[in-house]
Amino acid sequence: xxxxxxxxxxxxxxxTVLADIVLKILPxxxxxxxxxxxxxxxxxxxxxxEYAEALENYYEALQLEEDPYDRSYILYNIGxxxxxxxxxxxxxxxxxxxxxxxxxxxxxxxxxxxxxHYQGLKAIDQQQFNISKEMFSKSAKxxxxxxxxxPNNYIEAQNWLKTTGRKYNLN
Length: 171
Prior knowledge:
This protein is mainly alpha-helical. It has 2 domains: 7-87, Methane Monooxygenase Hydroxylase, Chain G, domain 1, CATH 1.20.58; 103-170, no CATH class. It contains 8 helices and no strands. The protein has helices at 10-25, 30-47, 51-64, 68-84, 88-101, 106-125, 129-149, 155-163. 35% of the residues are buried. The model has no long low-confidence stretch (mean pLDDT 88).
C-alpha cells in the first residue's frame, strides 16, 4: 500500500518517517491507520500532480475513515483536485460536504466563495445579470464566514467586499 516516494524532498521523507512512527505509537485502530496511509499517499500523489492516483487514495481513505474531522480534510482535498481540473460543480459538492463535517475550515469556505465569484463573472459575460447577482451574494456569504474564522487571511476578498459595498463584521 505505501506509495513509493518519487520526490527526494527531505521534508517529505522526514514527514513520512515521523508519521509512520507516530502511527505505531498511537492507540488507533487498524482501519484508522490504513485510512491515514491512504490519505498520506493521496497528498503525496496530489503534490506531484498525479490527480487520478490521489483521488483513488482519497476515496479509499474515505471508505475507512470514520472521524468527521479527518473526513472533512479528505473531502476538502478531493474538492481541490476537482477545482484544479475545472470541475467546479463537483468541487463545490466536496467542499460543502467538508464544511458540513467541519465548520472550522476557512480554506474550504474561501474556495467555495472563489468558485461562486467565478460563476458570477461568467454570468456577467453571458449577460445573465440575475444569476450574476445571486452568485456574488453567495460568494460574499462564504467569504464573510472565511474571514470571520481567519481575519488575517483573504485580503483580496476583504477588499472585494468593501469595494462592492458588502459589509462584514469581524466581531
